[in-house]
Every structure is written in C-alpha cells, then in structure tokens.
C-alpha cells in the first residue's frame, strides 16, 4: 500500500517536472528579459539581474569584511551554501540594514527628485561598517 502511494507521488512529480520544463522553455523563447531564479527576495527587486545581485552581494561582503557564509547558511547536502535559506539571523539583520540604508538615501539625499529614488547610493553599507561586521567594535 505504502509502496503504491510512493509510486503515485513519484509519478506525479515526474509529470510536474516535465510540465514545468515545458512551460519554462516556452517562457524563455517569448521573453526578452533574463529569466531569473530567485526564490526568496523580500527587500531587493525580485527581477534583479544575476550580475546586479552578484555585485550587491560582493559589496555587502566587502563592506562587512565577511564571506558569503556570514549571512548564508550551509546547504543541507554538499559543502555549498543555501542562498535562499533564512536560517541565519545575520541574513534577517542584513535585510533590515538594506531597508534602513535605502530609507536614509530616499529621505535625505534625493536632491534631484530622482524618478527612481530607491536606487540612490549616497550612503552605503561601507560608510558605517568600513570592513567590519559590527561598526560598534
Ligand atoms: C551581510 C549579509 C550578506 C552577505 C555577506 C551575502 N549576502 Fe547574499 N543575501 C543577503 C540577503 C539579506 C539576501 C536576501 C535579500 C532579500 O530578501 O531581498 C541575500 C540573497 C542572496 C541570493 C538570492 C537567493 C534567493 O534565491 O532568494 C543569492 C544568490 C546570494 N544572496 C548570494 C550571495 C553570495 C554569492 C554572497 C557572497 C559573495 C553573498 N550572497 C553574501 C545577505 C548577504
Ligand atoms: C548608518 C550606519 C549603518 C549603515 C549604513 C549600515 N549599517 Fe549595518 N550596522 C550598523 C550598526 C551600528 C550595527 C551594529 C548594531 C549592534 O551591534 O547593535 C550594524 C550591524 C549590522 C549587521 C549585524 C552584525 C552582527 O554583529 O551580527 C549586519 C549583518 C549589517 N549591519 C549589515 C549591513 C548591510 C548589508 C548594510 C548595507 C545595506 C548596512 N549594514 C548598512 C550600522 C549601519
């Protein structure tokens, strides 16, 4: 009985995967925008390109003087990182910092009435952190 259920579940997943890969290829041929694959962005733009995301992540790492693993938890399997996971409190802390930094810029440095004030980068992580995880130390 158990085995039969497992077979049904596996069969269903197989079907889902083939359906998903079919829809994916259809979307790719119709779309001119880079297909993105982010699973868990809540404060950065959900359609951020790979290059741009890589750039901001490197900026954060350099500003705090840390590696990716300071904010990102290890993957369940293998020795990589699970970038979408929210297991580390440092990642949640960083989200607050991203929102705070954006707010400082929008509210205080929008001299030119920028049409995209969210992109103003006058105050940066590095201005406070200067290569340290905690500016207080
Ligand atoms: C200071 C903390 C911090 C550091 C260091 C950091 N990240 Fe992140 N990263 C975040 C946060 C916060 C998010 C989620 C942003 C959001 O919710 O919009 C994120 C999201 C991501 C995602 C998207 C995952 C998904 O699918 O949702 C990737 C990929 C990623 N980071 C890669 C990296 C890499 C590669 C490095 C090292 C070069 C790095 N990060 C260093 C804080 C950090
Ligand atoms: C206005 C100054 C300021 C800016 C800008 C700023 N931070 Fe911070 N950040 C702080 C201070 C101060 C602390 C320490 C808070 C404490 O220890 O109570 C901190 C703490 C943190 C921590 C927690 C460190 C720990 O000890 O666990 C993370 C992660 C972090 N910041 C990420 C960022 C990122 C990423 C940015 C840019 C998006 C950023 N911060 C921008 C002032 C700033």
UniProtKB/TrEMBL annotation:
Q: One GO CC annotation, please?
A: plasma membrane light-harvesting complex
Spell out the molecular function terms from Gene Ontology. Answer: electron transfer activity; heme binding; iron ion binding
Q: Which Pfam families match?
A: CytoC_RC
Name the SUPFAM superfamilies for this protein: Multiheme cytochromes
**Could you tell me which Gene3D superfamilies the record lists for this protein?**
Photosynthetic Reaction Center, subunit C, domain 2
- GO terms classed as biological process: photosynthesis, light reaction
What InterPro entries does this protein map onto? Answer: Multihaem_cyt_PRC_cyt_su-like, Multihaem_cyt_sf, Photosyn_RC_cyt_c-su
Signal peptide interval: 1-23
Keywords, sorted A to Z: Electron transport, Heme, Iron, Metal-binding, Photosynthesis, Signal, Transport
The record's function comment reads: The reaction center of purple bacteria contains a tightly bound cytochrome molecule which re-reduces the photo oxidized primary electron donor.
Q: Kindly provide the name given to this protein in its UniProt entry.
A: Photosynthetic reaction center cytochrome c subunit
The source organism is Myroides odoratus (Flavobacterium odoratum)
């Amino acid at each position: 009985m158990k085995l039969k259920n497992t077979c049904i579940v596996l069969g269903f997943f197989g079907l889902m995967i083939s359906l998903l890969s079919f829809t994916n290829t259809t979307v790719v041929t119709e779309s001119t925008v880079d297909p993105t694959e982010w699973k868990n962005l809540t404060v950065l733009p959900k359609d951020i390109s790979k290059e741009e995301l890589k750039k901001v992540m490197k900026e954060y790492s350099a500003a705090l003087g840390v590696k990716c693993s300071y904010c990102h938890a290890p993957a369940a399997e293998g020795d990589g990182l699970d970038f979408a996971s929210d297991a580390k409190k440092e990642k949640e802390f960083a989200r607050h910092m991203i929102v705070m930094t954006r707010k400082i810029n929008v509210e205080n440095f929008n001299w030119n009435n920028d049409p995209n004030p969210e992109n103003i980068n006058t105050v940066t992580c590095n201005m406070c952190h200067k290569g340290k995880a905690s500016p207080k130390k």
